[in-house]
Amino acid sequence: MPAPDQxxxxxxxxxxxALQAIVPGEGVIHDEREMRAYETDALTAYRQLPLIVVxxxxxxQVSKVLKYCHDNxxxxxxxxxxxSLSGGALPLEDGVLLSMMKFNRxxxxxxxxxxxxxxxxxxxxxxxxxxxxxxxxxxxxxxSQIACSIGGNIAENSGGVHCLKYxxxxxxxxxxxxxxxxxxxxxxxxxxxxxxxxxxLALMTGSEGLLGVVTEVTVRILQKPETARxxxxxxxxxxxxxxxxxxxxxxxxxxxxxxxMDKPAIHAAEDFVNAGYPRDVEALLIxxxxxxxxxxxxxxxxxxxxxxxxxxxxxxxSESEEERMTFWAGRKAAFPAxxxxxxxxxxxxxxxxxxxxxxxxxxxxxxxxxHGLGVANVFHAGDGNLHPLILYDANKPGExxxxxxxxxxxxxxxxxVGGVLTGEHGxxxxxxxxxxxxxxxxxxxxxxxxxCAFDQKHLLNPGKVFPVLxxxxxxxxxxxxxxxxxxxxxxxx
Amino acid sequence: MKPRNTGDxxxxxxxxxxxxxxxxxxxxxxxRTLGRPVQAAHVLDLSGLTGxxxxxxxxxxxxxxxxxxxxxVEKLVDDNGQELSFEPMDFGPLLGVTPAQGTxxxxxxxxxxxxxxxxxxxxxxxxxGMEAVSGRGEIFNxxxxxxxxxxxxxxxxxxxxxxxxxxxATTVTxxxxxxxxxxxxxVLSGLDDDDGIKALCKAMGSSAEVSGAAHLPAGVNGGSSSxxxxxxxxxxxxxxxxxxxxxxLGTYGTPSRLEASETGAxxxxxxxxxxxxxxxxxxxxxxxxxTAGPQLVxxxxxxxxxxxxxxxxxxxxxxxxxxxxxxxxxIRAAIDAVGGGHATLVRADASQRSNxxxxxxxxxxxxxxxxxxxxxxxxxxxxxxGKMVSGV
Lengths: 493, 392
Ligand SMILES: Cc1cc2nc3c(=O)[nH]c(=O)nc-3n(C[C@H](O)[C@H](O)[C@H](O)COP(=O)(O)OP(=O)(O)OC[C@H]3O[C@@H](n4cnc5c(N)ncnc54)[C@H](O)[C@@H]3O)c2cc1C
What we know:
The complex is a heterodimer of chains A (about 500) and B (about 400). With about 500 residues, chain A is α+β, with helices and mostly antiparallel strands. Chain A has helices at about 5-10, 10-20, 30-35, 60-70, 125-130, 150-155, 165, 200-205, 240-250, 265-275, 295-310, 320-330, 335-340, 355-370, 400-415, 435-440, 440-455, 470-475; strands at about 30, 50-55, 75-80, 95-100, 105-110, 115-120, 135, 175-180, 185-190, 215-220, 220-225, 225-235, 255-260, 285-290, 315, 345, 350, 375-380, 385-390. In chain A, strand 8 (about 175-180) and strand 9 (about 185-190) form a beta hairpin. The N and C termini of chain A lie far apart (about 50 Å). Chain B is α+β, with helices and mostly antiparallel strands and about 400 residues long. In chain B, strand 3 and strand 4 (about 60-65) form a beta hairpin. At the A-B interface, strand 9, helix 8, helix 9, helix 11 and helix 17 of A face helix 1, strand 2, strand 7, helix 6 and strand 9 of B. The complex binds flavin-adenine dinucleotide (FAD). Flavin-adenine dinucleotide (FAD) binds near residues 42 and 213 of chain A.
């Protein structure tokens, strides 16, 4: 992390008074004990007390807080529910932590236009809860949906089991209101489609709190599919499972969800919830088909055929809602289940081209041996998004370091086979230093130029996402090579 | 200048930046009349940058050079039972240029999406990665070649709809989808605009998975009005969902049904704005909340003589000004009055296009932010100067 600015630390009292003048009463927290609640997000290996915590309630307060911090060179870390797994909301010692959790109201539900307007602190599931009595839902469904905020979802471009068919956050957001670090309030999009001018909505989605603070969100809602049914399919090898996934997609079928688990994960989950998973398979696939009843029945048959053609040793089809939920119970409990077999685990997140799956799993077993740690795999098989869970014991000296080194090796492997460092959890501080494994210096410079357009002074969430922070002035220099007109032989138009 | 590879593009742009030589960027130039006329001494023609770099149908991922003709891309994926599900429109008929022209880079630069936008998303929603050359003459990669990725800012998506004013795309990676087995259209006749849009919104809010929702008022495409809903997918499912719509919209009249081939032709007509083809009247493309469409058109109809039809469940209005004037101020004010959106002038002669803001003007802080972004990527202002905003 960047070294804390001693001058800012020395001005703490003055900053506190200024913030208290903007956000009255309990909206400013400065007592060390009370601030403990904010010292980490869900990447708990990292902890840091913030300078001060502010909980604004109005857009005007957000704007004033940001303007004050901007004018006085104080860093700001936005925070939603704090469920980030990449350390995105980790506080800075010399920075204000801006919690958006008092922005918790649903502002407008418009069924005709299939749009819902909410404040950023509303939870992901809260949106669905607000519309489900009319049969609607909000499609992106991170496993943390009961807790995570829609503001955090925007910042992380979160996804879930439904992503393959229904898209990520970015595909389901229509509009935003946001405050720039200078305090200016801008609106992007709305209930209409496609914003005019540059697509700043695209840049904001997945910007990890570095470009602006989201104060209002308009999302698209969908009518719940008529029905959903699932297949539970076991394979003797992961190659067979991988091929089955490819064949399902090649057959023109995009399932509502398609999840896979490897043997260690299957055993951990089965021990924990008794979902009826077969133990004698190397790979277990859950395929869920959703949509009109007639279509789902038809597709269940097609997927079963494809599974059998790929040596499936075990096929079960849900015949009731209860049975479908049982299939999912193990998958959904996979993380806590692994928590039972290991004192600690690191949940990694990388995406690979699906065809590389067998190779990646084999290499991962080699890496496990090299680092002397176990690994269990659950992943979004449809889109190649892996979540290796690295098992370690924080109380054993050196194991956390080994787990982190193992995790970095896995992510490098993802990039090496043509994939990416993160599929849904974000870069944060966790994968920051690996960015150079995926991007060249020039690639990273362009990314940072986006930052310069939004936040010239680098005051919003600095230290996250980018390994080296170039100053904007330095990035602005151009290497100018005066030269000959290229292709003098080619006629001009 | 017609580069043959990314290195060539880099050289041209670096030279132009060093010498302050503005460039007009074109694919095949088929959309040259979209946006504001560009004042540039040189043309950077990307139509030589063609070819498929990789295509993995089972991964749903396609990587091609930006100058590859869209028609070739569509044929390639079609041969593999897949499609670009954002259904890019063909501006040929509307703009009076050769149809079926254009490159994939041009489609993305203009973020062109067809009727399936309401279900499948816009062109930008199908972009996964991009190699491009910034106005500084630097080659860079952003995004990736897998369908799920949140590593770094989403530059590939942001470069869509930028009309080549931030960077020149040299290679693009797209998400493709399986092509539906069949399609059918549910047709209601004789509804007025209000009822037509109500029916569309009701259908869009159902579980019928509608992939096209348009209302063509009387006289736009033949005699009486038609309110049309497209269903796509496995044939058993299409039949079933047709019945769902019948039950849902029974009060609006007795529907008729178009089968796959007629469905294809109808939606191509809607997508490519064929009702206005061959004419010379100014044409605007308006995007508003779906339910605001009819009110907007009614308000404007009181001010001047127009023809309008609705796609995107009412939210996309194709408006033709029959008296030949642009009515820019009235249209933009009317959009604000119905709750916001934007209006883009898509057909008008060059002098008209240089005299009004072709793209919807933005509030000051937003315009300033957009300008800062432009300055970061193209500090010398050499890429398509003035294409989107006068003087930028
Ligand atoms: C058990 C568990 C399961 C999870 N499963 C998934 C999953 O399936 N899919 C998935 O994608 N993620 C998952 N996550 C990760 C996490 O829930 C998501 O990243 C979520 O979007 C974070 O939301 P939050 O409100 O908790 O944000 P926080 O953790 O508070 O913040 C995350 C980032 O968002 C920024 N931010 C927050 N609010 C705002 C705002 N209003 N304006 C600007 N920036 C803001 C912060 O600065 C930070 O960079 C999981 C996490 C846990 C703990």
